[in-house]
């Protein structure tokens, strides 16, 4: 059986998943690096603000959509950060 699935990391769509939508791993790593830098400079971890991701990525795999017999609406394709053909 084949089921369309949406994942949270772009790597899944690149590997053959239908769609991925989630926070950017690159942005998350950058934010983590900033936190580590602040801690190494002497900031107390308890004093650092809690932050949520602000950068999200939408990746659509049209090859998978075609294999599943699905049509992705143009409005979704226009919003996608990456379309795999």
Could you describe the 3D structure shown?
- By secondary structure, the chain is α/β, with parallel strands linked by helices.
- Helix content is 40%, strand content 19%.
- It contains 4 helices and 4 strands.
- It has a 4-stranded mixed β-sheet with strand order 1-2-3-4.
- Strand 1, helix 1 and strand 2 form a beta-alpha-beta unit.
- It is elongated, with a radius of gyration of 17 Å.
- The chain starts with 5 loop residues before the first strand and ends with a strand.
| Secondary-structure class | alpha/beta
The helix/strand order is: EHEHEHHE
β-strand amount: 15-25%
Proportion in helices: 40-55%
Contiguous uncertain segments of 5+ residues: none
From the alpha carbons, calculate the radius of gyration and give it in angstroms: 17 Å
Query: Major sheet: size, sense and barrel closure?
Result: 4 strands, mixed
Ends distance: 23 Å
Average predicted confidence as pLDDT: 94
Give the spatial strand order of the biggest sheet.
1-2-3-4
Global shape: elongated
Number of strands: 4
Number of helices: 4
